[in-house]
Amino acid sequence: MRPCAYGLVMDNAGRIAVARSRDGVFLPGGGIEAGETPETALEREAIEECGWTIRVGACIALATQLTPSFEKPSTFFAIDVLHSTGAGLEPGHETLWLHPDEAAATLMHESHAWAVQQFISLARPRASTPVPRRIVGFHQDDEGHWVADLECGHAQHVRHDPPWQVRPWVLTAEGRESFVGVTLGCIHCTHATTFAAGPPATPS
Length: 204
Prior knowledge:
Radius of gyration: 18 Å
Structural class: alpha+beta
Number of helices: 5
Helix content: 10-25%
Distance between the termini: 19 Å
Strand content: 35-45%
Number of strands: 11
Number of domains: 2
CATH class of the largest domain: Alpha Beta
Mean pLDDT: 84
């Protein structure tokens, strides 16, 4: 038996992150080592495979995958990516962002594909009603785009990219200062609230 922990995260385009290596395509995560909790194991694996510093959210699914060699009881968590170095510490790993149907079809384990479907079914209702959070500051990402820091600890891009996103105020210090205290809808907080009721039943 090899207990494992895996993370599910969706980007602004509605794509799911998966990790590809020579062994196949899996959700980010892996085996739980001695002395680790599922959460700390997932935090370690996210750094090693994807180069991510993450916040582990609520458990959204539990499943056991039968392999030819052993059983893999797995815990699946919603996660937030707080920082990315662009590459994991382990060579041979690549992070891909796939449409949920493509991710489910590509993942090596049936339990991972099932977890994606559970994640999507819970995540969709949250998209239209994000939780309002006040802006407390701003920073720039690695590409120089402006990001709003929210009171909840999450962050959200506020790019000026006309005609799609018109926010000329973000380009000046005075403009950004004038928006401190203004609320933005935090998708990540709504995500966490959605899963607070607990995980769905495991598949039969």
